[in-house]
Specification:
Domain ApeI dehydratase-like: 13-108
CATH class: Alpha Beta
Strand content: over 45%
Strand order of the largest sheet: 1-2-4-5-6-3
Structural class: mainly beta
Shape: globular
Protein name: FabA-like domain protein
CATH architecture: Roll
CATH superfamily: Hotdog Thioesterase
Distance between the termini: 30 Å
InterPro entries: ApeI-like, Dehydrase_ECs4332_prd, HotDog_dom_sf
Pfam family, one: ApeI-like
Organism: Serratia odorifera DSM 4582
Number of domains: 1
């Protein structure tokens, strides 16, 4: 399984959305990254940010590159996380952040091609 379990999707307005996700332990992304202490790779986090942005905010957007990427804490199997998405149309950027409860886990800024 490559996709997290979607618990809730929320459109806040035309440029903001939130998605609550559950990360099952059997996600393919956890295998081998790292065998004794699995964590969700950054590439999966960026991939999901783009996937949910296309579904909720920007159906025609294509990935143009990562401008900023910060990791504050790992995302672990069996965690519930919140993905916040913010599209900046004037700059053609997608900002995303993952949180576990009140703790920031990661964030980034993606340049979009449209």
């Amino acid at each position: 399984m490559m996709q997290p379990e979607v618990l809730q999707r929320q459109m806040i307005d035309a440029t903001h959305a939130c998605v609550q996700l559950f990360l099952p332990a059997d996600l393919l992304w956890f295998r081998g990254h790292f065998p004794q202490h699995p964590i969700l790779p950054g590439v999966a986090q960026v991939n999901w940010a783009m996937q949910f942005a296309r579904e909720l905010l920007l159906p025609e957007a294509d990935f143009g590159g990562i401008e900023v990427l910060k990791f504050q804490r790992p995302l672990l199997p069996q965690e519930t996380v919140t993905l916040a998405l913010a599209w900046q149309p004037e700059r053609n950027k997608l900002l995303f952040s993952y949180r576990v409860a009140a703790a920031s886990a990661s964030s980034g800024k993606i340049a979009l091609c449209r």
